[in-house]
Structure formats: C-alpha cells, structure tokens
Amino acid sequence: MLKILKTLCIGALAATVTAGTAQAEWPKDRPIEIIVAFAPGGSTDVMARAMQPYLEKELGAKIVIINKPGASGEIAYTQLSQAKPDGYTFSFINTPGYLSMQVQRKLRYDPKSIQAVARIVDDPTAFVVREDAPFKSLKELVAHAKANPKAVSVGSSGVGTDDHLATILLEQAAGVSLTHVPFPGAGETRTALLGNHITVGGLNVSEFAGGDTTNIRPLVQFSDKRAAEAPNVPTAQEQGFDVVMSSERGLAAHRDVPADIRTKFSDAVKRVVDDPQFKEQAKKLALPLAYLSGEDWEKQMPKRLQSFQEIWNKTPWVQ
Amino acid sequence: MMAVRSTFGRTGNHPDILAGLVFIVVGALGLWAGRDLRVGAAAMMGPGYLPLIISSLIVFIGLIVTIMGLVRDNERLDVIRLRPLLIILVAVAGFAYAAESLGFILAAIWLIGVGSMADRETRLREVAASIVVLTTFGILVFIVGLGVQMKLGPF
Amino acid sequence: MEFLDSLILGFSTAATPTNLLFCLMGALLGTLIGVLPGIGPTATLAILLPITFFLPPLAALIMLAGIFYGAQYGGSTTAILVNLPGEASSVVTAIDGYQMAKQGRAGAALAVAALGSFFAGTVSTLGLAIAGPALATLALSFGPAEYFSLTIFGLLCATVLASGSVIKAIAMICIGLLLGMVGTDVNSGSERLTFGATELFDGVEFVVIAVGLFGIAEIIVNLETPELRGLIAAKISRLWPTRDDFRRAWPAVLRGTGLGTFLGILPGGGATLSAFSAYTLEKKVSRDPRRFGKGAIEGVAGPEAANNAGAQSSFIPLLTLGIPSNAVMAMLLGAMTIHGITPGPAVIQNQPELFWGLVASMWIGNAMLLVINLPLIGLWVRLLTVPYRLLYPAILLFCCVGVYSVSNRAFDVALAVGFGFLGYLFRKAKCEPGPLLLGFVLGPLLETNLRRALLISQGDPSVFIQRPISLALLVAALGLLVLMVVPAVRKTREEAFVDEES
Questions:
Q1: Can you tell me the ipTM of this complex?
Q2: Looking at the domain covering A30-122+247-314, what would its CATH class be?
Q3: Where is the DUF112 domain positioned along the sequence (chain C) (predicted)?
Q4: CATH superfamily of this structure's domain A123-246
Q5: Residue C17 distance to chain A (closest CA, Å)
Q6: Are C190 and B37 within 8 A, CB to CB?
Q7: Cα C424 from Cα B5, distance rounded (Å)
Q8: Pairwise CB contact (< 8 Å): A9 & B145
C-alpha cells in the first residue's frame, strides 16, 4: 500500500526533482522554472499546472512550477528581474495588478527589466447582481445609484484589482457615487452577494460563466466585445458607458533573454493554446483563452498604464 | 554551565515584571511601526485606527502588569540557561540562511549538527548518525515525496 | 425513504474497489502530512492536483477530501506528543493533550482524540447528508455585522483559555490582534506594520508563529530543564483510556460535535473557532475547572470532536452553494472545476452519485482513519521513549522545512527564530501563547468585518444591534463578560487558580 502511495507521489512530483545537468542547447540543459506569483490552488496556479504537461511536450523540456506568493506579485517579479537571463526562468504576470502596482507604489524591481512573452488569457470584468434584484441592466443600476448616492455597494476581489478599477471608471463615466467594498477574493464576494450583504458583485467572466448561475444575474461585461463564454451578457459600451476592463494573464521573462528563445517559447505557448485537448480543459476551467504575442501585448500596456496613472492622479485608490 | 539567576530586586513578582516589560516593548514597537498610518475616525476608519488603539492598550496593560508585579509577593524567574537558547536560535537562523543559497543538504547538516550541541548529553557518534539519517529522510520525504520546492545543493 | 435510497446509492458508489483505494490513499497521505508539522493540506493538495486530471472525478475528490480530514487526525498527534500544533484548529488540543503526555497518559489522549474525532465525523457527515442545503442557507445570512459579533464572542472565549491571570491573557490576545494586522490592509490596500519588508505584505503566516511560539520555544525550555524529560519516558503507564477517562470524555465529545457541526459551516475561521469555543465550553461547564491546563481529558475530547465536525461540515457550503469556506475547500473547488463539475444546488440533482458518493466516502474514510490510528497509538507513544537528545533535532528539522514550505522562502524561517525567542520570553514570564494565536486568527476577521459593516451601513453603528443574529451574539458575549466580572463567579475563578497565583 505504502509503496503504491509512494510511487504515485514520486510520479507526480518527478517534475520537481532536478534533472541531470548535461550541457545542451536551450531548452534541454536543465528544467525551465516558471514562477507563479500566487499560492498553490489559486486560479493562476491551477492554470499553470494545467498547461505544464502540454508546454513540456511542445518544448521537449522539463518544466518546474515554483510558487512565490506575496505582495500581489511583487515578490515573484522581483525574483524574475534578478534571474539569470538564460531562458530558464519565466514568470506568470497578471494585469491590471502588474501595471497598477507600478502606479501605486515604489517597487523593489525595475519594471523595464521584465518583458512580456505571451498573453494567454483575457478575462473581462463583469458586474453581477442577485436574481431578485430590481435592476435588469447597467442603465437601471446607474439610475438607481444616481438617485441614491453611495447606497449601491460593489464588492471586489481587493483594492487595485480589475473589479475595483472598473468600479472607479464606471463612477467617472456615469457620474455616480458607489460604495466600494473590498473582499479578499471572488469566493467571498460571491458569498456576500448571495447573502444580500452587498448590491453588486464585481466578478470576472470566468468566475461565473462556466459555473452555476442560479440566483445571480450578470448585468454587464466590461469588454470591447462580448466574450465567447458569456455571449448573452451585454458590454458596457453597448449600454452607453465607455468602460473597458479585464484581467489578463500571461508569461514574462527577463528583458535580456535572447530574442530567439523568447520567440520559440512564445510559439510553443501559442501551439498549446491552439491544442484542441488543452482547449477542452480550458473550457472546463472557464478560461477565456486569448493568445497574444509578447510584442503585441506590450504594445497595449503603455496606454493602460497611462489610464491607470490618470485615475490614480484624480482618485488614488490606496491611501 | 551558564545559569543566570534573576538578579533584579528581592521583592516583586519577576515573571509579571518580565511580562509587563515585554508587553510595553511590543506595544511601543506597534506604535512606532504604525506612526505614519492614516488613523481616520470611528465611522471611516483608516488603516491606522485599530493598530493605534490595540498598541496603546498593550502598553497600558504592560504598565499595569509591571506595577502590580513590583508590589506583589516575591517570585523568581525559572532558571535561564543561555546555552540551549543561543544554540537553537543560531542553528535555525543558519538553516534559514543556507536554505536558499546552499540548498537543503547543507542546511540540514548545519541545523542538525549545530542544533545537537544544545544538549550536553549529546554524543558525537549519535550526531553523525542523526545527520545522515535525518538528511536522507528529509530528501526522500520532503523534497522528493512531498515536493517541497527547495533545491538540494548549492548549484 | 428518499434519504435512505440516497445513502444506499452513496455507499454503493463509494465502496467500489477503486474508490476505496483512493479513500485509503488520501487518508494515509493526510495522516502523514498532518504528523509532519508545518506541511499543511493546502500545499499537498496543490501538488497532487495535476494527477487528479487522470483520475475519474469521484475518485479524485474522494482522495483529496481524505487528505484534508486525514490531516486533521494527524495534526492532533503532534500537538499531543510534542506540543506542536500543525494548524490553528489543533492549538487547543496541545494545551491539555501535551500535559497528559507529560503525565504518561499520551495513549489515553490519542485514543480519545481518535474516537472523539470519529464520532464527530460520523454525526456531522450525517448532518451534511440530512440538512446540508438548509444549513448552507443559514451560513449565507452571516454578513459583516454577524461576523463581527461572532469574533467578539470568540475573543472573549479566549480569556477563559488561559489558566493564568486574565489581564495577561487579554494582553496576549491584543498582541495576537496586532500581529494579525501586519500586512496589506484589505480595506484600504495600504501596507502597515511591515517595517518595509515585501515578505510581510501578506502578513505573517500562522505556521511561522505557531512553530516559533510552540515548537522552538518548547525545545529550548525542555533542553534547559533536563530533569523534567526523564520523567516523561518513565511514566508511560497504559495506552488505553481508563473507565473514568471515558466517563469524563463522552459528554465533552457530544458537546464538541454539536458546536463543531454548527460553526464549521461558517466561511472563514469555522473549524478553528469551533475548537476554541468547545474548549471554553468544557471549562465553563466543568465542576472543577482547575484541572484544565493540567491534563484534563475533556480539554482534548471536546475540541478534537469539534474540529473534526467542523472540518466535515465545511463541505456543506462548498457542495451545496459552491462557496469554499477555507483554502482547502477552494482547492477542492478547483479540482471539481477541472473535472467540469460545478458545485452548487444542481450537483445534488444532476449528479447524485457524485454528491452522495463523496458523503459516504467521508464516513468510510473516517472509519479507516480510526482503524489506522488506533494501532498506531502504541507506536507514537513509544516515540516518546526515544531519548530527547535524538528526538529534538528531528523536530527542529520538521519545523524548519514546514515553515519554509509555506511560501518557499527562508525569510519565514528567520522570522520563526524571532518568534521562538519571543515564545521563550513568554514562558519565562508565565504568559500562555494560546490566546495570542486565537487573537491572530480572529483579528483580521474582526477588523475587516467591522470596517466592512460600517462601510456598507455608511457609518451607522446600529447595524450591529438591528440584525437579530448579530444582536444575539453580542448579548451572549455580554453575558460571558458579566459571568467573569460578577463577584461570585470571580471568586470561584480565583479559587480555581489560587495555587498558581500564590
């Protein structure tokens, strides 16, 4: 019995054992470390572990996933910026946290030392209400909030998250005043919404689309076009409010990693995202896959960074 | 070996005095660390509101406990021996230092080797055996078996 | 009848050889990681998550659930034997359990813990089967105001935990509260009390404090007083509890089970709160509270039953509403979504074999744990006869690796050195670390919910008395306070501790 157990454990964890170190060309030299900036079991971690076998196959290399949780990613990004730029260390990065962090505090690392390699997921922010709520659309919600300033409470997954920033943007676009109530995560937000303790839950599309939508009604998704996972939920722009916000996830490396390694890695990620088997698995996890090459992704960043800076200058979300 | 007896005063409850002093130091540390935080008001509490209240309360209780300890019946501290205290703390601190740069094997050898010196009954041959057995056990169970993300050697 | 049919369906699904095998595997692995301090079920589940891709969904869930409740069993073993609580819910077990071990009654403590846990697990599994959906709705009615009042009540309970002076216990709770505030403030997003260390932005880890205050400090004190440890090994008398032990333990188990089943459904500190309040309850109803803190078997039986019941009933919100009540449940939720299962009311209707199979497997798993653990007691107790000079380096190594593995960083180990020193000072100052840990666990709940409630009510404090559950909890807390202050009661309290204060 114990033997089976052990074999099973060893089998599962073989990936974490350092392999032999014969000199070879990238990526055969040694295992590639991918840093996850969040604790095991979180949605980024689950996604990383789901991708691991596919990416190993595409690259023909071993991959080790290392969790370095803390300070909303700053600890992981600091480590990435200090890693040797030899193509054996990558890290997941998440927006808007990765960008808003640069606005809201002095960081321990230089954001310029990190370069995006591939975007994998683009998960629009959405507002949901209880099924018995009187609001049927974002317009009705905004009208109610106009008549009753501060009475509409919006739960988010924390200060500076996409839910929170979307709330601020909506307040400015619609000229209303909402009460922002931060929770530690989407689970708590959902609980509070179902228990009728808050009016609106700020969730991402992946956090309700694949799941159980009994008792909740999505009002709006803050994307530029409706996500494939939530085709029936209108966007904010469709309802007359120019607010776009989403949570993106992808991989990044040190800027000095040779361009051909970055390209090879990025291409491997693209093939994984296109793999029908992986697509099936992503569907189960309700991951809105949206591959973008590192260059294309980085092109979007300055604009978003600037808009965060503008919000920050007007209403700093951290005191 | 080194045994320090409580030296201050003949009267007074020494454990209470020590407790009071520890409380005052911890509370003061809290007040100092939170000095720049926005306090806010009861209805709109800032991040510094509760730390200020709690830290002040700890200092206040510390003062009371110290004063009460001074006037209460005499009770001495238990014996304090510096050897186990210092050696254990140094052993663990060394493990912390070694774990990230030198890897598990060297860190474990340091921890067990130095840590074993804390006990006077320790025999050299047993320490050597402990090092071998526990380090091997640690590699198999923690690193391989449970997948603790720590490298083995300094490379 | 429908209920019976469902149970039969559950047992027939859970009793297939594959599912039994995975149940046993989970329970064994859980016991193993529970015994190794520091390495918690959360990290283990995360590591095993990828393998579950290749298993049938029910087998995967059965194994993951087994790891979780197996760890609860294993965690109390180290708490009793070496005074090292692996997680928040076994902190109180260490108080009286370790004293029993010192008196040579480790076997009795372990046996009562295992039997009590099994009984509690059975009852709350049944509770989950019968009243799951209804209980889940109750959990939803707990909003910020209710949580605030509940934590106030819980903190007042903590003062009863300490067997020494009340004022020192209050100071210890406050230090715990202060430690709980270290890190990023949820409500404003700003960092506080971090001394600028990024490693502290997410606060201090529970395991770091527990290992420092309990593990490291305990080792140092034991090494200082060699005369004490010879006694432990010499005094081991019998493995099985006496008839008197059973007589004292069973009502405590009953009370603990009830409390745990109820509090476990609440998201947040459910299992922890239930263990702490079970201890308080036992001490309050006891005719002779003086025995607590010195090896009272009720002090082991009640909390152990409560934390196991709490662990089982924390599945209720997950399975019926899809709401994870703690990190482990969040992981299970992840495992379910990987298999395309969405926990929620629909699961019971659409996939009854999954829901009932899991429920039945929990009972089977608990029975297996009992069978595994009872014979192991002899082995564990024999561990105490190993000379301490050989034992403590091993404990040190487990502590260090456990602390490191929480976030994979050496910073936490270094921090544990600081807490070890602080714990040593507390020993010398005769301050008990238990209340500090409760303050630490409940502190963030207290503060965020207080501020959240006031935020939603737009600064109106009357929410706390306008909501009936919140009001009831505050009244109960007030009652507890009065009980402590009323002169008559205070007299018995003083009598209770007269030997320690003189």
A1: 0.92
A2: alpha beta
A3: 20-438
A4: Periplasmic binding protein-like II (3.40.190.10)
A5: 14
A6: yes
A7: 16
A8: yes
pLDDT digits (tens, 9 = 90+) for C235-249: 566 678 888 888 888
Confidence category of residue B66, pLDDT binned at 50, 70, 90: very high
The CA distance from A40 to A91, in Å, is 14
Strand ranges inside chain B, DSSP E: 3-4, 80-81
Closest-CA distance of chain C to residue B69, Å = 11
Least Cα separation, residue A260 to chain C (angstroms):
30
pLDDT bin (cut points 50, 70, 90) of residue A211 is low
Does B134 sit within 8 Å of C397, measured CB to CB?
yes
Nearest chain B residue (CA) to A18: B151
Of the candidates A53, A198, A211, which has its C-beta nearest C342's C-beta? Answer: A211
- Pick the closest to residue C147 from A191, A103, B101 (CA basis): A191
Question: Mind telling me how many Å the CA of B16 is from chain C's nearest CA?
Answer: 6
Put simply, whether C457 touches A (Cβ < 8 Å) is no
Asked if the model's pLDDT at residue A318 lies above 80, the reply is no
Stated pTM of the model: 0.80
- Of C13-22, C123-132, C285-294, C335-344, which has the strongest mean pLDDT? C13-22
Give the whole-angstrom CA distance, residue C418 versus residue C421.
Answer: 5
| Residues above pLDDT 90, as percent of chain B | 54
- Residue C501 confidence (pLDDT) above 70: no
**B19–C431 CB contact, under 8 Å:** yes
Q: Is residue B114 scored above 90 in pLDDT?
A: yes
A147: Cβ contacts below 8 Å, ≥ 6 apart: none
Helix axes C57-82, C298-313, angle to 10 degrees: 160
User: In this predicted structure, what is the pLDDT of residue A22?
Assistant: 38
The Cα angle at residue C362 between residues C356 and C365, in degrees rounded to 5: 140
The residue extents of the domains of chain A are 30-122+247-314, 123-246
Per-residue confidence (pLDDT) for residue A1, from 0 to 100 = 41
Residues A13, B145: C-beta atoms closer than 8 Å: yes
Task: Tell me if chain B has a CB within 8 Å of the CB of A66.
Answer: yes
Collect all residues of chain C within an 8 Å Cβ-Cβ radius of residue B57. 174
List all chains that touch chain A, counting a touch as 3 or more CB pairs closer than 8 Å.
B, C
Cβ-Cβ contacts under 8 Å between A and C: the total is 161
B86: contact with C, CB 8 A cutoff: no
Bigger pLDDT: C499 or A67?
A67
Closest Cβ opposite residue B46 in set A18, A64, A319: A319
- Nearest Cα residue to C119 out of C300, C296, C370: C370
Confidence of residue A239 (pLDDT cuts 50, 70, 90): very high
Q: Assess whether pLDDT exceeds 60 at residue A9.
A: no
